[in-house]
Amino acid sequence: MICLFDRYDQASFDLLRSLKATGLDCPVVVQDDGYLSPDVESPYSYFTGDLDTPEEKVYFHNIGYIYDYQRLNNMNPEALILTNSDQLEQIEQLLTQLPNVHFHIGAITEMSGHLMGLNRYPNVSLYPNIRPAKVAELFERCDLYLDINISDEILNACRTAFENNMLILSFKNTCHSRRFIADDHIYSPENVSGMVDKIQSVLAHSSEMEAALARQKQAANQASLEQYKAIL
């Protein structure tokens, strides 16, 4: 048996120590080793540094999450954007600089005239009032997700893209979920050329795509079944 906790914070850590004091004899895994404060790099190290004995230190483990990926990335030159506004950071520059990539832009509401005007570009498809079946189809079809809408995230898009092995790219002012996006895949709005270069590189070279997806999974604190088996 393993006792699982989702994250490290003082309350959960105090509870873990209380459980240990009652005689709980199974390994304790706290999965999220994410951000704590500017001065603390690792919550796991921060809290376990106060443990009293080597036995206590061995008792706690920092192992990440096992994700249920739905499919492989096939390097299709198609990018998905889901939005609830007509403000998409650098969208026209992306459309013009990546003519080989087809952009699918979906909204769960009507689209403004500004957004509908993107129809003038040959490499874009617009989906106002997008239906759930079409959303699912696009997540299966596209291998890039661009988190570039300047408003709230809709439809849990970043996590769904992550679980579909889509490479997720974003801008600093639009990023909705750093948990599922590698730091070097988040660009300043002025560095749209950096995003363009990354997209061209991963679509041209499978090794680049594999490396980018590996960094993305590392950012999401991915773990393996073997890591869990090792502590049993």
UniProtKB/TrEMBL annotation:
Q: Which GO terms describe its molecular function?
A: transferase activity
UniProt keywords, alphabetically = Transferase
Q: What domain of life?
A: Bacteria
Q: What is this protein called?
A: Glycosyltransferase-stabilizing protein Gtf2
Q: Which organism is it from?
A: Streptococcus cristatus
